[in-house]
Design goal:
The structure is a single chain. About 15% of the residues lie in helices and about 40% in strands. The protein is α+β, with helices and mostly antiparallel strands and about 120 residues long. It has a single domain (about 5-120), classed as 2,3-Dihydroxybiphenyl 1,2-Dioxygenase, domain 1, CATH 3.10.180. Strands 2-3-4-1-5-8-7-6 form an 8-stranded mixed sheet, covered by helices on one side. It is globular and about 45 Å long. The mean pLDDT is about 95.
């Protein structure tokens, strides 16, 4: 199962303070819009998203169909395929992708410790 690009999505209180902090750690802005209060930042292959007011808690995020540079991969497992495989393993879902659609979709699960994992396909 190919899960795609991985990142941590952080719910931050002050986007500007968080941006400066992660820049001090060697990250740079890769994508996003600070006026909309979200940025994607990179340091080599490590990707973090900082989001003010968009999420209640931190998330682990997988983006099927993308690599760590947000470039489309040649082959990937569609999010609905991943969802079906996880369902077959008895994993419970917080919300699901509509399996009667194609293209962009998302679903959310939680690990045994309550950590939220977002699967978010953009293509």
């Amino acid at each position: 199962m190919k899960l795609g690009a991985f990142s941590i999505s952080l719910a931050v209180k002050d986007i500007n303070a968080s941006k400066q902090f992660y820049e001090d750690l060697g990250f740079y802005v890769f994508a996003g819009d600070i006026d909309q209060k979200w940025l994607i930042m990179k340091n080599e292959h490590t990707v973090i998203g900082i989001f003010q007011g968009m999420f209640e808690e931190n998330l682990l995020t997988f983006n099927p169909g993308w690599d760590q540079d947000a470039k489309e991969t040649e082959s990937f497992n569609d999010i609905r395929e991943i969802q079906q495989e996880l369902k077959s393993k008895g994993i419970k879902f917080e919300n699901e992708a509509d399996e009667n659609t194609s293209g962009p979709a998302s679903f959310v699960i939680k690990d045994p410790d309550g950590n939220t994992i977002l699967f978010d396909q953009h293509r």
